[in-house]
Amino acid sequence: MATAGKVIKCKAAVAWEPNKPLVIEEIEVAPPQANEIRIKVVATGVCHTDLYHLFEGMHKDGFPAVLGHEGAGIVESVGPGVTEFQPGDKVIPLFISQCGECRFCKSPKTNQCEKGWASDRADVMAAVDSRFTCKGKKVLQFMGTSTFSEYTVIDQISVAKIDPAAPLDKVCLLGCGICTGYGAAVNTAKVEPGSTCAVFGLGAVGLAAVMGCKAAGAKRIIAVDINPEKYEKAKVFGATDFVNPKDHSKPISEVLSEMTDGGVDYSLECVGNVEVMRSALESCVKGWGVSVIVGWTELEDFSARPVQLIAGRTWKGSVFGGFKGRDAVLQMVKDYLDKKVMVDEFITHNMTLDQVNDAIELMKHGKCIRTVLTVSPQ
Ligand code: NAD
Ligand code: ZN
Asked: Which residue segment(s) compose the domain that 330 sits in?
């Protein structure tokens, strides 16, 4: 490619500071260094974790940054030492790396690879290293990915090569939300056939958890959200019941306990709220109930009475659905192409990168499931 080895000037949405709209700027993207890949981003979803960084976490060392971590694109050029990728390959950037060599990658029990940009300064959600500059300033790469940019540079251990038949404006959602929720049900909760589940929060992550519960054979899936507009969508993915906590004066855990003769077998928290995490745990049946925290927050401690766990419940957490990034995304793209998992059904809006602030507003106000932004027209 004519651009290989050169700095590329392109458009990106820059988050200069917390709690402010993103600004479309021209940025410079340096060529990939050893073991890195420069990618032309074709499409990206907007996930609540982008909003978390901007409006909730607001970590001062995490700005300026280019947000976006749910994208798909095409390899533009590769750095020295990259042998598995070539210009033209279709790829999905990953915020969970898979080096294949560290003790975590070698264990089948976890997807917590210890290499890759995203695991460096995980609290800040942006590594010190970055290939972006704007107006002479270094701009950080959120979660090691930064898909709100026409071009990005990513460590090869954080990139999944996918089937060239995959439509990038759809499968970009497999870069975060769908794999996260689906895997939390299938891999982390390990939902069993015939079981009863409750999913708290019906954004893309929660709806994917509903889809995972159904795929695992759950017979009853109770969808819980304070926004009743989400229920119709939840039915599409397999929800059998809907509960709005606002419709009840008693705690939601009591409501669910009454509905299920003592509590659900599995609950998944897909909101990112410590009170909801507690409710999800307390909604599980004693003896064997499993509750999984998927929603993201680092702002507060959570709490629960020890007897909840002493009585036999298990409380777990899940990042990227417990999936090992590169292997899982390749497989999930295949499963989508084979019509075994839904993706298109999560997309409620299509916009362009210039409209990223509108997409953020839609999510803030609960008006979308996923907005897909076209970043570079193909
Ligand atoms: P979203 O904003 O689209 O959906 C959140 C849903 O929760 C909304 O439907 C909202 O109405 C609902 N909600 C809010 N308060 C509630 C309450 N008290 N009770 C019940 N429902 C409530 O977000 P999303 O993109 O689906 O992400 C969901 C969460 O998952 C976020 O916290 C996000 O940061 C997190 N996340 C975690 C991972 C991970 O790897 N663990 C990955 C991606 C996203
Ligand atoms: Zn995400």
From this structure: 90-125+152-187+321-342
From 268, 296, 298, 348, the mutation candidate for ligand 1 (largest count of ligand atoms within 8 A of CB) is 296
The answer to whether the pTM exceeds 0.70 is yes
Ligand nearest to the CA of 243: 1
Q: Is the CB of 348 under 6 A from ligand 1?
A: no
DSSP string, 228-265: GGGHHHHHHHT--EEE-GGG-SS-HHHHHHHHTTS-BS
The per-residue pLDDT for range 87-134, each reduced to its tens digit, is 999 999 999 999 999 999 999 999 999 987 666 677 778 888 899 999
Q: Does 30 reside within a domain?
A: no
263 and 168 within one domain: no
Reported as a single tens digit per residue, the pLDDT across 205-218 is: 999 999 999 999 99
Q: Is residue 146 part of a domain?
A: no
pLDDT, residue 117, reads: 65
For residues 195 and 307, membership in a common domain is answered with yes
Q: Spell out where the chain has E strands.
A: 8-15, 23-29, 36-45, 65-66, 71-78, 90-93, 132-134, 137-141, 151-155, 159-161, 196-200, 220-224, 241-243, 266-269, 290-293, 314-317, 347-352, 370-374
